[in-house]
């Protein structure tokens, strides 16, 4: 296969507004700065990635600004003007910096896209994904009342979504989930707590067991796998980990401890597609189901999610919903569309969607072109 050698990295700083505010147990998101990372190979082929951050470090420790800083001072200088034999090598090349996984993933995924395009393949084909369409789920933020929530669920079920995920927090949990389950006895339904509880809430959370939920996502602390293992022994509802899993090693330990039965894989959270695939494979060997989480991505991040979800152990519908559920206009052509709850995997090379320059121009704040490896920091070879 043709190798990659980056001659330039373009940072497209954009600002995008969600069509409606999205509320989780840690806050409300409405508008965010995002950095689109475009890597340009010496052949002229380019590839796209996205910082799936927001402006505040409330989901994890990264923000868009910290991700841009890490990219400019460390990751771009490490990767420019070097022969990259295969994108699976990039994660290792960035391991000299600990964590900062969303920043790493932004450029790693861009290199997957460029490499795939240069070789005339889709990313799915490169990683061995075979699905031709993926099932789409809808993640619903915390609503003002169970009645309002039920109305939203009704709308999304009619639209065809294959899974409904409801954000919960203390004071907006059991009653809300029960209302949805009573109205829709048969839908695939789950809750996401974003770390809003402690092990002292085990008896409270046990009330969810009668609602036949697919899972409860990240009920306990963002950095915990011990208490989650204890909780899983006390409740029947499968525990799914999101925030606690940053790497293959984290996944291995969580599986060994029995901290979860399901893992939500987010390319950004684990530092890229290569690490995502390793976690996917590990889970498959161990009978742990996985699904692809969402970070309110633009079309670029969303396209990467679609490519990854073609792998066989993505057995549960993910949070990757169509563009129109987030943006009045997405930046990619065509927009990501859903029919009958399914998103068709595009045939094209790389991510299979094109960033549209005219749409990009409407949300752009500034652009930078980086061609030099100069940086104030010592960078390993
Ligand atoms: O992209 C989506 O639709 C899902 C959004 C979502 O649930 C989410 C969005 C931002 C940060 C964390 C999460 C989460 O899965 O916990
Ligand atoms: Mg989550």
TrEMBL record:
Record bears the keyword Kinase: no
SMART domains: MR_MLE
Residues the record lists as binding Mg(2+): 192, 217, 242
Enzyme Commission number: 4.2.1.113
Keywords, alphabetical: Lyase, Magnesium, Menaquinone biosynthesis, Metal-binding
InterPro entries assigned: Enolase-like_C_sf, Enolase-like_N, Enolase_C-like, Mandelate_racemase_C, Mandelate_racemase_N_dom, MenC, OSBS/NAAAR
Domain of life: Bacteria
Domain Mandelate racemase/muconate lactonizing enzyme C-terminal: 146-238
GO MF: magnesium ion binding; O-succinylbenzoate synthase activity; racemase and epimerase activity
GO biological process, one term: menaquinone biosynthetic process
Reaction catalysed by this enzyme: (1R,6R)-6-hydroxy-2-succinyl-cyclohexa-2,4-diene-1-carboxylate = 2-succinylbenzoate + H2O
Function comment: Converts 2-succinyl-6-hydroxy-2,4-cyclohexadiene-1-carboxylate (SHCHC) to 2-succinylbenzoate (OSB).
Protein name as catalogued: o-succinylbenzoate synthase
Organism: Edaphobacillus lindanitolerans
Gene: menC
């Amino acid at each position: 296969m043709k190798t990659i050698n980056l001659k330039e990295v373009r940072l497209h700083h954009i600002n995008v507004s969600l069509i409606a505010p999205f509320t989780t147990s840690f806050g409300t998101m409405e508008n965010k700065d995002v950095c689109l990372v475009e890597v340009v190979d010496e052949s002229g082929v380019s590839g796209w990635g996205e910082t799936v951050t927001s402006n505040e470090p409330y989901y994890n420790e990264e923000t868009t600004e910290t991700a841009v800083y890490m990219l400019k001072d460390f990751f771009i200088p490490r990767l420019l003007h070097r022969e990259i034999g295969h994108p699976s090598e990039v994660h290792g090349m960035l391991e000299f910096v600990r964590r900062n996984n969303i920043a790493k993933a932004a450029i790693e995924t861009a290199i997957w896209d460029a490499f795939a395009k240069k070789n005339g393949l889709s990313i799915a084909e490169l990683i061995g994904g075979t699905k031709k369409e993926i099932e789409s789920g809808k993640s619903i933020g915390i609503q003002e009342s169970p009645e309002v929530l039920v109305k939203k669920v009704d709308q999304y079920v009619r639209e065809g979504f294959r899974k409904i995920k409801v954000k919960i927090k203390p004071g907006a949990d059991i009653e809300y989930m029960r209302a949805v389950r009573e109205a829709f006895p048969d839908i695939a339904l789950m809750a996401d707590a974003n770390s809003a509880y402690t092990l002292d809430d085990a008896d409270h959370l046990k009330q969810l067991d009668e609602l036949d939920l697919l899972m409860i996502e990240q009920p306990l602390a963002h950095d915990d796998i011990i208490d989650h293992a204890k909780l899983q022994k006390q409740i029947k509802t499968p525990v799914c980990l999101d925030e606690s899993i940053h790497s293959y090693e984290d996944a291995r330990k969580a599986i060994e401890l029995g901290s979860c039965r399901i893992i939500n894989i987010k390319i950004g959270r684990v530092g890229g597609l290569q690490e995502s695939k390793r976690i996917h494979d590990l889970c498959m060997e161990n009978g742990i189901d996985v699904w692809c989480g969402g970070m309110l991505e633009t079309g670029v991040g969303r396209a990467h999610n679609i490519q990854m979800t073609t792998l066989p152990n993505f057995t549960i519908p993910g949070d990757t919903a169509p563009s129109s559920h987030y943006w009045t206009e997405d930046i990619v052509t065509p927009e990501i569309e859903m029919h009958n709850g399914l998103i068709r995997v595009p045939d094209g090379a790389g991510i299979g969607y094109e960033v549209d320059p005219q749409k990009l121009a409407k949300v752009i704040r500034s652009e930078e072109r980086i061609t030099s490896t100069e940086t104030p920091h010592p960078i390993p070879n």
